[in-house]
Amino acid sequence: MSDTDNTLSGQYAAQVAADIARNEEELTLLRARLEALETDLSVLRSMQEALGVSVEKATASPDAPHGSGTTVTAGTEPRSRGNAPQNRGVNGTSHAGNRGKRLSPTLRELAESHLVEQSTPTVAAEVAAAIAERHPERNASIPVVRGALENLVAQNRAERRKQGSSVFYSVPPARRETTGAESAASA
Fold first, then answer.
1. pTM value > 0.85
2. Which residues, 6 or more positions from 176, have their beta carbon under 8 angstroms from its beta carbon?
3. Is the CB of residue 172 less than 8 Å from the CB of residue 115?
4. Distance between CA atoms of 117 and 139, rounded to whole angstroms?
5. Which 3 state secondary structure label does DSSP give 69?
């Protein structure tokens, strides 16, 4: 029985030694990467000073555990995700004054207007390409646009027709007439 213990403990010892060597190697690589990042950071900060640009920096708080959601912004106290300010827009402005007023059309509206412009049924990829071309700031990936198109179908504002493995979307003729009249009235 002692032979089995010796070989088993020998196997464990070999595995532990291999794990230690692998961890030490990984630590060496991580330290080198950290040094490179610190060098990059110092170069970027010196470039920022040379340009005279003042940028708010959001970095992880050194006192907070990794992944805690606590951030420190220059000149402020740390705050966790749970007590972030509410009703803030992209630029930190309040939405309170803009209730009911949308600044840009929804993706669904953009997709519907593209379908109205087309005389033939269109696939989601073509709609996504058209939206991305007209509105490069929008997320117009094919899956997102397909979701918007499916939402239009669910609301009976568009029709879906499948041909083989392709799905084509179009606006019903009655909807095309009313949407065309609405856009002409608003112009």
1. no
2. 116
3. no
4. 21
5. coil
